[in-house]
Design goal:
Distance between the termini of chain B: 31 Å
Strand content of chain B: 15-25%
Strand content of chain A: 5-15%
Helix content of chain B: 25-40%
Shape of chain A: globular
Structural class of chain B: alpha/beta
CATH architecture of the largest domain in chain B: 3-Layer(aba) Sandwich
Structural class of chain A: alpha+beta
Mean pLDDT of chain B: 87
CATH topology of the largest domain in chain B: Alkaline Phosphatase, subunit A
Oligomer: heterodimer
Shape of chain B: globular
Number of helices of chain B: 14
CATH class of the largest domain in chain B: Alpha Beta
Number of strands of chain A: 22
CATH superfamily of the largest domain in chain B: Alkaline Phosphatase, subunit A
Largest sheet of chain A: 7 strands, antiparallel
Largest interface: A-B, 128 and 121 residues
Radius of gyration of chain B: 23 Å
Mean pLDDT of chain A: 92
Largest sheet of chain B: 9 strands, mixed
Distance between the termini of chain A: 50 Å
Chain lengths: 1024, 476
């Protein structure tokens, strides 16, 4: 088997040669060509698609991925004749002028070989066509340090720089170094992690940051993206799940620096460990974090297969750096992984005791009570108590106002008072042709013809006597012209009202406002379950399959419905109301025959029921004195009064929100079902699925590992536990490399392999292969100690050097692969939010617990689900938790996270983009503004407000040029707000912050603009 | 939205790496925050484009071809009879009707032929019928997904699993911007009052593995038409301007020091953000539209957030050069009560869709705007529920459905492809979702075979790995 040949080619020298293809020159003309570095990638990219491992697309029965095959003779023609260029058909096919013979064929859409690639192939054949294995499939061997005296990381990087004729950069300024370190290890700025008086020598700083609980959160964020962790299912319905205790398990694991091999084993097979603890079982939720699909028409078995596939693919990406997804349908086109191999891996996950369902039926579950919910509960109880006190105060002062109002009302109230005002339509029209007559009492009568379905539009100029509308009433009357003197001209005399709408149109404007309605009640409605005609409430959706009818009742009597508006509507005289009554039922022929519409400006029970209103009852009770009013009536009048009392409503709403949140937190603190792995009693047989189709079962396969990566005895490949042990075997060539590459990416922004998800033939080669191997061996030999590797990386001079660049260096190494300077990159969006919270002091640093809802613009969830789900931002200290605790709805990730991982499938590569939408987010997000407000208030009284602001946000002082710019803008703002104190109050009343004292508002608002300006600086959001 | 692209660094990169741009180079180029877009055009513009932009009128839920376009008068004979197995050929059903007998429900609408082309359109779409001679009906669409989310994901991204770039993202990535004040890809969703059974996931307009600046930006009917667009209350425009000036000046000082061209990009993005704060409210403000606009698009067009109002906005976006404009109208999933439910969605969309085509034509925009109307699949010939009750509906059907296209180099007044007598299988000229994508890309001047992006070691294409082709017969 060629793959087993010892790696003899120029591998060692390849390690010393230049690996980055962009840096051209692969040494001198006679230097040995490296098969794995120079030749295999070319063969893979241009040839393997048709001449690779996948037999289904193989052309001419030729494969070039195996040495024996590539070097054999076909009909006396050598494909590759080592040392003999002229006899090598391969060479001829690469250079021929004959379009029919040229490879790759011009019509294959594969790029022809470049001149330098051809040269390499020529030299390789001339040098004897020495074969080898792809680098990533060879077990890493610790290479010697080029300079044993130097820090290992620097040793490799500097050696390479020296050979490139480049110098490393000088150290970055101290504040930059500290900031970089703090963000890299904790995701928070020094303002939150380094306290005055802390030791700030580099080793002490590293140790204190590694020991910080926030370090564990930072690493957990990496892992959550890779694990596609979410608080909901995804897909149709996107139902909620309560798997967050697993997120806390991840944080705890990183906090205790759990060795990565153990971390792996528990997540794959914690349930299979002897005497498994609840924590170990909880760990297996990793493989349940995939999306689940509860769509109505879906076969649950198809979904179950999807989940198993997701587990295999995730394992491939996260641990092995292999794109296994392709082998779901066919043998891999480039890497030595067959479709059979894929389903052998699949078999490890195929006997989970699950049935493909979603939502709350996605067994198996672990009953689990989180130890992390307690502090959230305590916090919330205290918050509710404080809001209760405020509500009581607010009620007391509102009652005083009510007393005055009542006194006045009782003296001025008219005995003729009516809550409802019939409206006189200016026009009644229909879409399908019904004609109408309106009588003196403003009753509208349909006079035919009687179309099967019709919409009535009733236009009314703003009714003079009511400038405020909080509800409207529809009376439906019987009439002698109707069938059987009932309610309509239809054959049955019955009506079905499918929908109603209320629009407001301002004179001269072409657009109308659509007025939302909160509820509807009727004196009678047919009983109906589901989407049947009956309930009047169903007239408020856009669904013609349900609606209001009184069919089962006495249809020779009049019937009434009352509709409550979402918000009371205040009309100006140039506005017009348009009521639309839709009759679009399935069978039809049920249009209302005779009706009248009235409106009321009273809030509360008046527009929620059909009884006389409190004010009407008061009119009846006249002449009354406030003192001798019936207690019940007084209560009704008070609750109506309170609905319109803004100050009280504010306190009440705040309390309601807090109580609601407390109830949810209580639920979270109880027993939760966390989705975990558990084997079913009867294992399922695993079949190869033809073309990857879920029900196209091919031959049966047994569980098994990937032999091309690491052969493993079959008696040790029966269970998930065996599989996990294989993954973290010291012999496994991939896992350790892939993991240290992730850690490198966390610290330096991009991996040593810039395709962290793909270490296969189509992935990029490492920029520093020896260093990657050295670190991989170091990880394994140090008991998979993650912190040990991180410590190594951040203690290097490479990490601490300046990131400033020059035109010459940019020209030479635009992607900074050689690290002649430190990388400079934008912080992930979650860190930008955490930074604002930390810099302002708003941050609630507690660890773990139920998810929270940070600020986001209104209506985002509602749009996706057409109102089916509502996002309510958290209140109290929960609002200021770190972003890792933000509720993750798969169909709508937190809106602040403008270019984060999507968490649909696993993602290990950092996304970084730079668009105007980010700018808008950072300028206008409530968290950013609230942080600015808090900062403004805090620094205002300081000796040097501007410098202390800069220190909080940028960890440094501004220089004179900068100060001049910022103070210019601050003055501009101050001038404006001093002459516009109301605006200052509005601007500075943000988030959960109360309005500042009126006198202070202009200054606070002005400093707030400065804080916001600084938070929006490139420097503030960048790993410098 | 591609101002971030810096030509200098790209050229530098290309010279040094000497590799092809279309695939690998971009992957790494984007890795360092630089983004490339319009410059790509030289690489991927393979033909003279007919269309410069796309308006995709997405009807989510699966409109019934049997009630709207695909007239099968012969089915009367089959009413209430069981669908022959020779027609069904093992077609999978959803679990909603899998246990039910497949009894045939003939289309319940009246059809007539319209225009000189004689296209068949039903009575439920009178306005669409009136512009039949401007449309190209494709009656032989095929997909391979039978449930909504996978089928819509396939229809819009070429693959049933979420995670691939959407058609719109590919387009904006490929063609880049022609408007400096608006995103290249905008999404408008009709506001409905009932919780939708088919949520409109943002991966439908997502950028997948393409950089996120190519994802669709939702233009919302809300206080914030684009998320975070509005400055906070109490902050006047001149102070916002000052803040952006200040940010720019300080960033420039940082740029001098660090030399990182990414800062330059950020400065420009803040400027663009400022411009968007004006250009989007301007776009949304219809007070400059004459009354005739609203008469053309129908009374619903006065109601912001309605499909009709969104059609007006689509035309305004086309006028402003936006590349890809995608409307979504939900709730076409008519499992029951076709006469009330399906007609409701027809009334929402018929007049405005037709008005949009007329309007574009009137303004000379139709020639270079490709309009596509359609949903993720069709509906089955068997009735769902009691077939002879007015309550009956139809289940999902992937093997055939109808879409229409207009403008942008598509032959007007044509009908392409045909189904069998049961509107069950395609009888003639099948058009797979991938073929539709290939054709649309072709009209935009892009060869779908060459238009790829390397991700996780593979060159991904919108049209996937199975063979797909341009439908030449419907091109002008």
């Amino acid at each position: 088997m060629p793959g087993k040949r010892p790696f003899t080619s120029g591998f060692a020298s390849a390690l010393l040669a230049i690996v980055w293809s962009g840096m051209a020159s692969s040494g001198t003309e006679d230097a040995p060509v490296s098969f794995s570095r120079d030749i295999l990638p070319v063969l893979s990219d241009r040839c393997f698609h048709c001449h690779g491992p996948d037999p289904s697309h193989r052309k001419a029965k030729l494969r070039l991925d195996l040495e024996d095959e590539a070097k054999r003779d076909i009909d006396g023609v050598s494909i590759i004749a080592p040392g003999d260029l002229d006899s090598s058909e391969l060479w001829y096919r690469l250079v021929t002028e004959d379009e029919d013979e040229l490879m790759p064929p011009p019509d294959s859409h594969r790029k022809p070989l470049t001149e330098s690639e051809r040269k390499l192939v020529r030299r390789w054949i001339e040098q004897g066509a020495v074969w080898g294995k792809h680098w990533a499939f060879e077990k890493p061997v610790r290479p010697p340090l080029p300079d044993p005296a130097a820090h290992p990381v620097d040793s490799f990087l500097r050696d390479r720089l020296a050979r490139e004729g480049l110098e490393p950069s000088p150290p970055a300024p101290q504040h930059v170094q500290q900031r970089r370190l703090s963000f890299a290890l904790t995701g928070l700025p020094p303002a939150a992690t380094i306290k005055p008086g802390d030791k700030t020598d580099w080793p002490s700083l590293i140790e204190s940051l590694l020991a910080s609980p926030h370090h564990a959160e930072r690493l957990a964020m990496w892992w959550l993206d890779a694990a596609r962790y979410s608080d909901t299912d995804g897909y149709q319905g996107d139902r909620e799940r309560t798997n967050w205790p697993w997120r806390d398990w991840v944080i705890d694991s990183f906090a205790s620096n759990k060795p990565f091999d153990q971390f792996t084993i528990e997540q794959f097979a914690g349930d299979l460990l002897p005497d498994a603890t609840p924590g170990q079982i909880l760990a297996t939720c990793f493989h349940r974090n995939h999306m689940t699909n509860g769509e109505g028409g879906r076969d649950p078995e198809e979904s179950r297969i999807d989940y198993v596939i997701d587990r295999v693919n995730t394992t491939g990406t996260v641990w092995l750096g292999l794109t296994l997804g392709c082998t779901q349908c066919h043998d891999h086109k480039f890497d030595p992984v067959s479709q059979k191999d894929y389903y052998s891996l699949f078999a490890f996950f195929n006997s989970i005791d699950e049935d493909g369902k979603a939502g709350r039926g996605a067994k198996p579950y672990l009953d689990y009570q989180s130890p992390h919910a307690g502090h959230a509960l305590k916090e919330m109880e205290a918050h509710v108590a404080s809001r209760q006190a405020l509500e009581i105060d607010a009620l007391r002062s509102a009652e005083a106002r009510f007393g005055k109002w009542l006194k006045k009302t009782v003296t001025e109230h008219s005995p003729e008072y009516r809550a409802w005002h019939p409206i006189r339509p200016s026009e009644v029209t229909s879409v399908e042709g019904t004609k109408f007559r309106v009588n003196e009492e403003t009753v509208v009568q349909a006079i035919g013809p009687n179309p099967r379905q019709d919409d009535y539009r009733i236009a009314v100029p703003a009714p003079g006597e009511v400038s405020r509308v909080s509800g409207w009433k529809l009376e439906v009357f019987p009439h002698e012209s109707h069938t059987e003197r009932k309610l309509s001209l239809g054959k049955s005399g019955e009506f079905i009202l499918t929908n109603v709408k209320l629009l407001v149109r301002k004179k001269g404007l072409s657009q109308v406002r659509d007025i939302e309605m909160k509820g509807a009640v009727a004196d009678y409605e047919r009983e109906a379950k589901g989407r049947k005609y009956g309930k009047v409430r169903d007239t408020l959706d856009d669904d013609p399959r349900n609606g209001w009818t009184t069919e089962s009742g006495d249809s020779t009597k009049e019937h009434t419905a009352v509709f409550e508006l979402e918000e009371p509507l205040t009309l100006s005289p140039d506005e017009e109301l348009v009521f639309v009554l839709f009759h679009r039922s399935t069978i039809g022929d049920a249009n209302i025959g005779r009706f009248r519409i009235s409106v009321s400006g009273e809030a509360g029970e008046t527009v929620r029921g059909l009884k006389p209103s409190p004010l009407e009852d008061l009119a009846k009770a006249l002449p009354a004195k406030p003192g001798n009013l019936d207690g019940d009536l007084r209560k009704r009048l008070l609750s109506q009064f309170l609905l319109d009392d803004t100050d009280y409503q504010k306190a009440r709403t705040t309390l309601d929100l807090a109580s609601r949140q407390l109830a949810e937190t209580k639920k979270s603190a109880g027993k939760l079902g966390v989705m975990v792995l558990a084997e079913r009693k009867e294992p399922r047989p695993t079949h190869i699925l033809e073309r990857g189709v879920w029900d196209a079962k091919g031959s049966v396969v047994q569980p098994g590992v990937l032999p091309a990566v690491l052969e493993w005895p079959s008696e040790k490949s029966g269970s998930r536990l065996d599989f996990a042990r294989w993954l973290v075997s010291p012999e496994n060539p991939l896992t350790a490399r892939v993991v240290v590459n992730h850690l490198w990416q966390i610290v330096f922004g991009s991996g040593l392999v810039r395709t962290p998800e793909d270490f296969g033939l189509q992935g990029e080669a490492p920029t520093h292969p020896e260093l990657l191997d050295w670190l991989a061996v170091e990880l394994v030999e140090n008991n998979w100690d993650i912190q040990h590797i991180l410590r190594l990386l951040v203690s290097s001079d490479t990490f601490r050097q300046s990131s400033d660049t020059t035109a010459a260096l940019e020209e030479r190494d635009p992607e900074n692969r050689l690290l002649a300077r430190a990388p400079r990159f934008r912080l992930p969006s979650w860190m930008i939010r955490d930074n604002a919270l930390a810099a302002s002091g708003l941050l609630n640093p507690s660890i773990g617990g139920p998810p929270v809802n940070p600020w986001q613009p209104e209506g985002v969830w509602e749009e996706i689900f057409m109102g089916g789900k509502t996002y309510i931002p958290s209140v109290g200290p929960a609002q200021y938790r770190r972003t890792i605790y933000a509720y993750w709805r798969r169909s709508s990730a937190p809106t602040f996270l403008f270019d984060s991982a999507q968490r649909r499938v696993c993602e290990v590569r950092t996304r970084r983009t730079n668009t105007p939408l980010h700018a808008l987010t950072l300028m206008n997000d409530t968290t950013m503004l609230e942080a600015s407000r808090v900062l403004a208030e805090a620094v205002r009284k300081e000796q040097e407000p501007l410098q202390s602001l800069a220190n909080q946000i940028l960890s440094r002082k501004l220089d004179e040029r900068e100060i001049a710019v910022v103070l210019r803008e601050q003055q501009k703002a101050l001038d404006y707000y001093q002459s516009h104190p109301r605006e200052a109050l509005t601007f500075s009343t943000i988030g959960q912050q109360d309005s500042p004292p009126e006198n202070d508002a202009p200054a606070i608002a002005a400093w707030m603009t400065v804080a916001s300006l600084l938070l929006n600086l490139d420097e503030a959001m960048t790993h410098e | 939205m591609n101002e971030s692209f810096s030509p200098l660094s790209r050229r530098t990169f290309l010279n040094q790496s000497g590799v092809n741009l279309g695939a690998m180079a971009l992957g790494s180029l984007l890795g360092r925050e630089a983004s490339a877009a319009s410059a790509l055009q030289d690489e991927i513009s393979h033909f003279a484009p007919k269309a410069k932009r796309v308006i995709f009128l997405t009807q989510s839920g699966g409109p019934s071809q049997l009630e709207l376009f695909d007239h099968k008068p012969g089915l009367k004979e089959w009413a209430g009879k069981e669908l022959p197995e020779s027609v069904r050929q093992g077609q999978r059903l959803t679990t909603m009707t899998a246990s039910q007998k497949q009894l045939i429900l003939p289309g319940i609408t009246k059809f007539s032929r319209h225009g000189e082309s004689g296209a068949t359109v039903s009575e439920w779409l009178p306005h669409t019928a009136s512009i039949a001679d401007d449309l190209c009906f494709v009656k032989s669409m095929v997909t391979d997904q039978i449930n909504h989310a996978p089928a819509m994901t396939k229809f819009l991204t070429g693959h049933q699993l979420p995670g691939r770039p959407s058609f719109g993202a590919w387009t904006s990535y490929g063609l880049g911007s022609s408007n400096r004040n608006l995103p290249d890809y905008l999404v408008l969703i009709s506001k409905m009052k009932r919780p939708s059974d088919q949520p409109l996931y943002d991966h439908y307009w997502g950028s997948g593995f393409l950089p996120s600046q190519y994802q669709g930006v939702k233009l919302r009917n809300a206080k914030d038409p684009v998320l975070y667009l509005r400055d906070p209350e109490g902050l006047p425009r001149h102070l916002r301007r000052g803040m952006i000036d200040g940010i720019g000046e300080l960033n420039r000082m940082r740029l001098e020091q660090s030399g990182d061209s990414e800062i330059e990009t950020r400065i420009r993005q803040y400027e663009m953000a400022f411009r968007m704060q004006t250009s989007i409210p301007e776009l949304n403000d219809l007070s400059d539209e004459p009354e005739s606009t609203f008469e053309l698009y129908g009374p619903d067009s006065r109601r912001p957030g309605s499909y009709a109002a969104n059609c007006v906005l689509a035309r305004r976006l086309a006028e402003r050069g936006v590349r890809f404009i995608q409307l979504f109208h939900p709730d076409w999933d008519h499992h029951s009560r076709l006469p009330s439910w399906c007609t409701a969605r027809c009334r929402d969309t018929d007049q405005p869709s037709a008005a949009l085509v007329k309007d574009l034509k009137l303004r000379g925009l139709l020639d270079d705007t490709l309009v596509i109307w359609g949903g993720e699949f069709g509906r089955g010939v068997a009735g769902q529920g009691k077939w002879d009750s007015p309550e009956a509906g139809r289940d999902h059907h992937p093997r055939c459905f109808t879409i229409w296209m207009a403008g942008g180099g598509v032959k007007p007044g044509t009908t392409y492809g045909a189904t069998d007598d049961f509107s069950y299988n395609v009888a003639e000229n099948p058009v797979h979702v991938h073929d539709l994508h290939a054709t649309a890309l072709h009209l935009l001047g892009i060869d779908h075979e060459k238009f790829s992006f390397r991700f996780q070691g593979l060159d991904y294409k919108l049209t996937g790995v199975e063979p797909a082709g341009v439908i030449k017969d419907i091109l002008v």
